[in-house]
Amino acid sequence: MSVVLSQLLALGRLDPYTVVAGANGLDAQVTGVRPGESVSALGSAPAGSLIVFTREQLPLDGPTADLAVRFAVAASAAGIITETPLHGVALSTTRLADRHGLAVITAERIDQSAVVQAMDANVRAPEVVGSDLVARVLDELERKGGSAPVVLGVLRDVLAAHVGLLDSSGRVVEGDDLFFDLRSDENPAPALPDTIVSGLSASHPAARTIDLTNGYLALHPVVVPPRARAELWFGVYAPTSAGLLRKSVRQALSIGAWAFTADLTAGSLANELESRNRAMLLSEILEHPESISRRAAERAVLLGWPLFGWHTGVHVSLSAGDPADLPSGTGRDLEAALADAGLEVSVVDRPDGWVCWLTDEVALDTAEVKTLAGKVRAGLLAVESDNDGIRLCAGIGTPAQGPEGLAKSLREARSSGLLAASRETMAAVERTDRVGFSRVLFAWYSYQPARDITMSVLQPLYDADPSGQLVRTLACYLDYESSATGTAAVLGVHRNTIVQRVGRIKSILGIDLTDPIDRLAAHLATRAEQLTDLDGPG
């Protein structure tokens, strides 16, 4: 059995080395490693030979370099190794080697006898190559860590193969395309074979090897206790020509998956500890804002929390969905989503959701609070899109000064969040500076006659659609200034769907939403229903 040149080089017998030409020939099969004697002797080298020279035998900056490449190509040699030339490699030599796919490799100093002996032993015992590759993977990951990019990079370099990280549907989330062997001009995007799909979605996943047209695909699950199901898989596509031992590939994948799982677990524990420390510190600050201890002040400094300044609090909570469906790292996901929306804040877990706040030297004005609300909403939408069936809402407090002000603003934010939870929209956000007007409506509509009027206005919509979808659409449409595009984005449907629903609503109610009186009456009715739903029946 032969060994691929790139695998042989990956064993480190020649480190450090440089491929100066013919990199497209690194997949050549090596049948033996032999010492070079002279350029003329290259012509009689057995096919598949890797020839090792010293600088004196083959100076790449000399006139015999081109001749050596031609002799090696004629003999179907696997490649040439020699010492680094003193004056660089001629352009004609590199072009010639590139054209014929002959790998030309250099190293600063070569012990010809030792290199030939070590490499030839690997070629004659491919199982040793496999063991060495596995050992190399273990050594590299021990030094570099186990993050996904690191694991993929190590496996790719050592195995000289296509590697990727897949989800349970077979989509490559990071790394190389593993399924190009299945593609053709007639079918550029084929469905994955059942053997792959069923394996990835198995309730009790196990490592497996699947034969493809020109090679095989090795898969290894990433299982993080206590879950038994694998949401991620490491995969290696090895062409038949590569000669990679399946056992060695499976072992290398197993080590990579183990390193990745260990890295995930360690990161999760660190994040959990940091989250707990944040929550404990905030609780201490909110319970005793008038007398912050020295230790609490020091911890706040370490976390980058300025205690003195103008704070604007934000309270995020779950308005729809089961909290059990949320992953444990939702707070971190929310923090990342807010950062992507342009809001760099620390998100802290609370018993009823999450809080964060902005601190500035001066209080935010109304326009700035409105901008803040837009960024918060963008962050909530991003989290909702990653968690089906979950709906978040948020309240924003008024700016207030110092630790006492932080506590006050967060209390206001929580109250505003309760009002936001009553809205039938995705990522609803209410600002405390607007809640006062909402409370005026709330108080007025607390009277039963007003409720009766509200229901009489909306009842035809409920009669036509008992699910309440038309009422929710009308409320959202009016909240977003009669924008079909904005309403569609909030409700997660196509714009044309909103246009059709609004047309149906107009027909059922017999109103003209371009008329200020009709529009105001409809808006008051939908908003009053939301407010009275929040307070409960009178």
Automatic annotation (TrEMBL):
Highest rank taxon of the organism: Bacteria
InterPro entries: CdaR-like_regulators, CdaR_GGDEF, PucR_C-HTH_dom, PucR_C-HTH_sf
Entries under Pfam families matching the protein: GGDEF_2, HTH_30
All copies of domain CdaR GGDEF-like, residue ranges: 295-414
Boundaries of every PucR C-terminal helix-turn-helix domain copy: 470-528
Family to which this protein belongs: Belongs to the CdaR family.
Name this polypeptide is given: PucR family transcriptional regulator
Organism of origin: Streptomyces cacaoi
